[in-house]
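Sample 3 of the quickstart, ligand 2-acetamido-2-deoxy-beta-D-glucopyranose:
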Amino acid sequence: MGFQALCVGLLCVSFLSYIYTPMPDNIEETWKVMALDAVAKTCNLVATLCDNIGLMKYEDVLAILASAHFTKPVSDENVTVIDTDFCDIPVRLYLPKRKSERRRPAVIFIHGGAFVLGSYSKSAYDDLNRLTANKLDAVVVGIDYRLAPKYPFPAALEDCVYVIKFFLQEKVLAKYRVDPSRICIMGDSSGGTLAATVTQLLQNDPNFKGRIKAQALMYPGLQSLDTFLPSHQEYQHGPVLTREMIIKLLCLYVTEDQVLPQAALRNEHMPEESRHLFKFVNWSDFLPEKYKKNHVYTEPVLGKLNASYPVLVDSRLSPLLVNDSQLQSLPLTYIVTCEHDIFRDDGLIYISRLRNVGVQVTHEHIEKGVHGALSFTSAPVFLNLGLKLRDKYINWLEENL
Ligand SMILES: *[C@@H]1O[C@H](CO)[C@@H](O)[C@H](O)[C@H]1NC(C)=O
Ligand SMILES: *[C@@H]1O[C@H](CO)[C@@H](O)[C@H](O)[C@H]1NC(C)=O
Ligand SMILES: *[C@@H]1O[C@H](CO)[C@@H](O)[C@H](O)[C@H]1NC(C)=O
Ligand SMILES: *[C@@H]1O[C@H](CO)[C@@H](O)[C@H](O)[C@H]1NC(C)=O
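Result:
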């Protein structure tokens, strides 16, 4: 009995020390963030255990846990909400009920989840899109693109491109009474990656050039060349996301091989031929001094990984890889970065590069913020930060779209 109790006690202690992460000093609502962080790490641990004993795959366990917050399409007094499809790809539409004389703006919403998890039906996103539709009198289109690893790169991107091109047809815009000159593409986290890429692709396509008025990128990941940016190092243990978790999930968008995440963790995953691309993501050139702190730039270690993944040098995976002339024509851009976020520097580098070529950027840096804030605006976890960010974003749309 005593021995069993001791074992249980030791297990509890090792579990708690595994999930415990010291929080940065100036974080907002520290206790709530610590709880979220503990939940994320516990889910990660459970998923890893299930995978190790062969019960269920890591990502499948996480997908089941994530789906607990999915909602049905429910209309209310202001907005009609329907699930349908555009070219066989599921979309959720938010159509304001209010009568209006003029055509409406539209927001295309691309959800986050590391290309592996998530849906537009997650309750926090559903609230966000409903509120956007009502406040702006806008049509909102959420896209449920195909997920990895079942559908690896570029499935997610292709689905987003199809849906948006379908929506941009004059007859479809007319059906929903959308003003073709007031369309924004928005995404959070990996949805921000997809939003940035789709916007680049459309803007560099002669048939779609100039059709998107604005892009809104919320704490996006924007490159997979360098996994050792200063923010990747400073926030490798969280809060909320750890470097190991995110690399494991993001690699599934490329391959299920285990050698890639292992090499990416050491930042030794890029091939020799990619040397010329590092100038596009060089934090030493593009990060504001304030964020360089005492980090020292080290040259990339290339060609260590024998397996070759051509996708890794594709700008459709890492939107930071396009050259300046392709960036130049991008529309009005809203980027949110959070201080305590592993992806902070991806956003900061994109902002520098966009501003260098004259793209108009509104930068919202949340000094006390953590990754994923917009997802924490519905039961059971409300972060004030998430609610504030949601308001800031909607205000920006009201003024700019
Ligand atoms: C409908 O819109 C009004 C005015 O914006 C708002 O006060 C009300 O809460 C909205 N109803 C719902 C269910 O969101
Ligand atoms: C990155 O920038 C630093 C400082 O400007 C420079 O010394 C280094 O050669 C650059 N490295 C790459 C791979 O572009
Ligand atoms: C890569 O391939 C070379 C030659 O085929 C081999 O000598 C080396 O051990 C391999 N490295 C790894 C990490 O597998
Ligand atoms: C930028 O990239 C595009 C597409 O890869 C290419 O056609 C163009 O020549 C490049 N421009 C410069 C200045 O390198």
